[in-house]
Write a structure and sequence with these properties.
This protein is an alpha+beta fold. The longest helix has 29 residues. It is globular, with a radius of gyration of 22 Å.
Amino acid sequence: MVNYIIGIDIGTTSTRAVIIDENGYFVASSTKDYSLITPKPGWAEQNAEDWWDATISTIRNALEDSNISPKYIVGIGLSGQMHGSVFLNKKGEVIRPAILWCDQRTYTQCEEIYKIFGRDEFIKLSYNKALPGFTAPKILWLKEVEPENYKKVTQILLPKDYIRFKLSGKYVTEVSDASGTILMDITKRNWSTDILNGLEIDMSLLPEVYESTIITSKVNADASNLTGLLEGTPIVGGGSDNAAGAVGSGIVRSGLISDSIGTSGVVFAHSDKPLYDSQGRLHSFCHAVPGKWHLTGVTLSAAGSLKWYYENFGPSKKVMDTYPDKKGYELLNKQAENISIGSDGLIFLPYLSGERTPHADPYARGVFFGISYIHTQDHFVRSIMEGVAFSQLDCLDIMRKLGITSDKIVLFGGGAKSKIWIQIISDILESKIVTLNVEEGPAFGAALIAGVGCGVYSSIEEAVHKTIKEVSLNKPIEENVKRYKNLYTIFKSLYKDLKDNFKKLDII
């Protein structure tokens, strides 16, 4: 009998459910989009019920398309956007819209955390900076700004764990996603009593923490009726989108680095022991691989920058007329291919929603620098791709200085579907770029993690070995590398020159 596994990823723009067999072959998948709520500049929220509605829809559609009886689904793995805060009352009802990872409202609360612990001491304690996108300052914000709502809170969940609650009725999380709350002692892989006591957050508000491969709950009768899943189907811990995406791209041993170009851009390095950057520029979290950790550097607006351009300006009329058989982002790729490296001196800073690595600056904003009469729509498209790659080099450079290296980088996400973007990334990072036979990232990784928990695979490593293969290798072009190094010097200097003005602009 063939075993089938479901992986579900609660993303920022959509929820995706995939069904794979034990060999990693895709049987069916379904995606449903939802909207982002931005009630004020710098704020980002979503209705948690939208995730649940999308989960019901995608599971039902994937099961229907697969023609597989639910009794052959051996387990479910969950993945999701990190750091989001879902506040529930004693009835399990959502109190207010969830505050997301890209929300920048909690700068004041981050400063309060440093006043309590001291900046350096907090980094030593949590292995991370206190940043506006993380969960801990969101909890403090609710306590201070919406005290009536805070009084109602009996449970705080992350996005994917809210879906686990809706599927099973259980309040549970796992180590990789819980790390992103900055409320954990990541060396002990559990909640930190020192941090919770210092912030006066009651541990009873937080779910129990499991390793990512442990069966945490089972589908209950209500969820079975809504989704078509069999009651009692095991639900495994799963992983954050970054950790599950790393599993889904084979980054499960030391010496491997991945680059995910999705809404955000994430450079991810596996580690056999807990490591941290003393300046807090990188994030240090537990991996979904039991007993392992990882370091990440994050660009908040990676493919999100290209999506912003596409939705507001779209492909040029010229490229649409030239390539009537092409659609969507394929047309933007064609535009970028028309322009030589460096975009004739047009440089883009991809800070559309502030920035994480290395600047940790919620006030940073996007910039096109060097505009002249020579520049066309094609130049703007290519400069976005180059600017995102430069920002990923910011992350990778820190890792390299900490002695974390790899002879190749595994690329996945939307950027991995663009040949021109792959070459740009290879040239700017000065690295071989590998793409894989799977492009699903977090949803696929969540399915593999579930497979381990349900006994389909003996370990994460076996699951990766059995299902993931390299399909392409792209090498940097030496001449391009040299030219990009010169441009990168200018790219880095622009943030330094504009930093003070970014903050001034925010208060105008």
